[in-house]
Structure formats: C-alpha cells, structure tokens
User: What shape does this take?
Amino acid sequence: QVQLVESGGQLVQAGDSLRLSCAASGRTFTNYAMAWFRQAPGKEREFVASISWSGTTNYADSAKGRFTISRDNAPNTVYLQMNSLKPDDTAVYYCAARINPPYSFPTREKAYYPYWGQGTQVTVSS
Assistant: This one.
C-alpha cells in the first residue's frame, strides 16, 4: 500500500553536510507521520527524527542542533538535512511512515511505524 524510497546517502567527511530524501508512494492525499531511524553495524536501530502532517517535529538528542527534518505533504516526501556530520553518524538511515496516525505528535518508537524503506548508507570519515 505504501512504498518508501530513500536517497541521498553517500561518503562524506566529518563536518560536511548531507540531505537525505524519502519519497512515499502508493497512497495520495492522506495524513502521514514520517520518521528517520538509523542503524550502525552491531548496534540497535535508533530513532533520529520524526515529523507530523502538520509539521510538529521530534528529535533524538544526538540530532538536536545538527539535523533538521522537513516534509512536503503533496507529494509525500520527507527530508533529513544533516549538518556538522560526525563519524558517529555513520549508519544505514531508514525512512518510516504511518498513515492516518492516531496522535498529532510524531513518536520515536519503531513499532509505531508500519512502513519502512530499505535504507540508504551514510558514511562519515574522520
């Protein structure tokens, strides 16, 4: 019903900026909550940022002050602007979405989002 495709991941150096994109398709003119998660090798998949249909945002502590999540509601596309990248930001970044969410505030729980993309690799060298 919903397909998510991430793009923008690449190899960058510490201090660089990068913008990830996630395009949602399969449904149109619906209310989406969208989020970014990341997973480094040997670590748990962790929350990065999320955004509601109306634009309310939620950030992990590691992302605050450096990352910005934004979206276009038509078409349904979410972005993650990453500035001042660090080697610790190296991970596969996943886009996630929920249709017609019950809450206006976008949560940071993985189970809240039933639709996921396949991920895009971000590598930050020192």
In short: The chain is about 0% helix and 50% strand. The CA atoms of residues 40 and 91 lie 4 Å apart. The radius of gyration is 14 Å. The chain has a mean pLDDT of 93.
